[in-house]
Write a structure and sequence with these properties.
alpha/beta, D-Maltodextrin-Binding Protein, domain 2, 3 domains, 10-stranded mixed sheet, 17 helices, globular
Amino acid sequence: MAIVTKEKLDRVYDAYKDGKLSRRHFLKYLSLAGASIGLVGLPFGNAVKDAWAAKSIRFDGWGGSVSEAFRENAFKPFTKATGIEVIEGEFGDMNSYLTRVKASFPPGGEFNIAHLSAVYDYARYAELGFASVLDETKIPNLKNVMPAMIKPLRDITNGTLSAVPYDLGQTGIAYNTKHISKEKAEKLGVSLLWDKSLKGKLGSWSGDFRTNMWYAALHTGQSPNNMTDLEAIWAALSEQRDLLKKYWASGAELMSLLANEEIYATVAWSGRVAALQQEGHPIGYLAPKGTYSWMEYLYVMKGTNMEIAQQLLNFMLEPAAAIAVAEGQNYPPSLDPTKVELTEKIKKMPAFDPTGKLDGYLFAVPAYWNAHQVEWTEKWDRTMAGS
């Protein structure tokens, strides 16, 4: 059997990457190489894995326009600059993705970096043992990130970071300005979502108990992070269910329902509202006091090649890359607008804060929401079903 070396593996990989070798033949070669050098107990035991890992890193995101923004404005330029391939995966929701990560072997396994949303998921991954520790000296562009976005992550992982904040969003309220005046929307605030005159023209998101309970809390005069009357919460959500046209399941469906005027008002992701506004649709955005705010961050799984991960994170935080991605996905970047000059397009986005301090932005308290996740998810599913 021919001797397999790391250099030979690199040459074969380069041939595959240049299109001179098919994926089928490349994988076949890796299999034969693994058999020739042994996968367990020998000095070359991780050669195949190391040869692959040294040239690539996996990134999982939300798919659709968000992933396209990452691909065109960050991943392709990064690969061109470094020769390191970013292997893309995608997920539909946080719970299903976490299930896949937990099922991998070893836990985390093939997964490296994920575009996760909301601080409570950062806490969940840390509690499950997936937290890495970033060497911040290797990510100098972190200095341009809003401190108000970094602090909540540090508080969870005892002063260290397992992720870098990347963009800012809100789940506010979208409304059709042809059918609902700005004056009415601002007067009703959150209660617009319970307006009986809009019966059959309201919507909400099926996929998240937090969002729905959050706005029911505000509607009933409670703090979303400390609800004291749960009976009132569930009663309000049952009442709202009878007023809805539909619970939407994805950002694409949300935009379709609003664009086609099937619904006139709904909870909505600020980035999708921005996209509709840019397309010329008569959609207003309401962010009443207590609006559900969240950040998205690039989470690095324990066991990932940290040198490559940190190189990619720093590249993605370069103002040129971060601004281009932000414009592509319609969410303001984590860059502090008092340190980095942002574009007019970003300044017009819902959820943008020109001060960079995020005063008045209300985020979910991880310990509170995570402690009740199973119970409230089950109750929410029953409420949606009308049982």
